[in-house]
Amino acid sequence: MYLSSLSSVARRSCATLSRGTRPPPTTLLTTSTLNTTTPLASVFRQKHASNQQTRSSSHSPMGTPPTNPRKKVTIGTLRAMHKRREPITMITAHDFPSAHVADAAGMDMVLVGDSLAMVALGMEDTSEVLLEEMLLHCRSVARATRAAFTIGDLPMGSYEIAPEQALETAIRFVKEGRMQGIKLEGGKEMAPTIAKITRAGIPVLGHVGLTPQRQNALGGFRVQGKTSDGAMKVLEDALAIQEAGCFAMVLEAVPAEVASIITEKLSVPTIGIGAGNGCSGQVLVQVDMTGNFPPGRFLPKFVKKYGDVWSESLRAIETYRDEVKSRQYPAPEHTYPIPKDELEAFAETVKDV
């Protein structure tokens, strides 16, 4: 039906040309006329309406657009928030659904953290995740975010060798991963690398304090800055990467009082995770804070569990299992009808099959 309609329009256009008369502009098959009253536009509208009315498969994963969509969060937005001391919200996401809900909930920033190694890929720690795996998940997250500022976490081994390697990786995160900025771990020693990336026009979110990719050198996941010398080192690292061009930085596992002092000494925002309420904003791993894990799993001290997604999912799936076993599902309201005469004709036809 659809193809024959297009063919009919094309034949009429050719016939007009063969008579030596230029067709009026409204009958030309050009993209500029698809929103007018041309026969082709009519075909497209009818086809689209038919799809909306009769589609039997799942609809667009984006669902219904919000009534009042948020303005896009930009670097300028984040700087303005910091200037007026408005807390900045950030959360991790690792795929389309987790990014979609984070964006819908109004997060200012969405981080595709290398924590996806554990929460999405079942790995032991962040050092295992590969660059290609991070890029795959970045693309998935980017498809869902419409307002939040998106950041991709450079995985271990993709940026430490040289600033040139780091820039190449960062460019891939923007071009292939469709991220708007990148995050990398490290203090003073990473300043030249950060400067190299920011000079290329790519926003960098720094990360000081506890740096999980270096946990083996730190003796494990240990709080940083618990002594005067330790706190001074965190501050020196923060000042160095600020000078190198970071637009903001994550402060992880630092005593709250130390993080507050460091935050006041900086001119860019700090995003705390296990660093108290004196930071410019906060970030949590989404799987942790939504409770999407089985009972008994260890949680860091700084995590607040805001939901119980695991229990709700378990309940729903167990109910589904039971209804399938008992043939309660699918019920008649979950099936598609067929006219009685067509069913009878079909039954008659297959009698001898």
TrEMBL record:
Belongs to the PanB family. This is 3-methyl-2-oxobutanoate hydroxymethyltransferase. It catalyses: (6R)-5,10-methylene-5,6,7,8-tetrahydrofolate + 3-methyl-2-oxobutanoate + H2O = 2-dehydropantoate + (6S)-5,6,7,8-tetrahydrofolate. CDD domains: KPHMT-like. Pathway: Cofactor biosynthesis; (R)-pantothenate biosynthesis; (R)-pantoate from 3-methyl-2-oxobutanoate: step 1/2. Gene3D superfamilies: Phosphoenolpyruvate-binding domains. Catalyzes the reversible reaction in which hydroxymethyl group from 5,10-methylenetetrahydrofolate is transferred onto alpha-ketoisovalerate to form ketopantoate. Residues 13-73 are annotated as: Disordered. It comes from the Eukaryota. GO terms for molecular function: 3-methyl-2-oxobutanoate hydroxymethyltransferase activity. Keywords: Pantothenate biosynthesis, Transferase. Residues 49-61 have a biased composition (Polar residues). Its EC number is 2.1.2.11. Residues 16-40 have a biased composition (Low complexity).
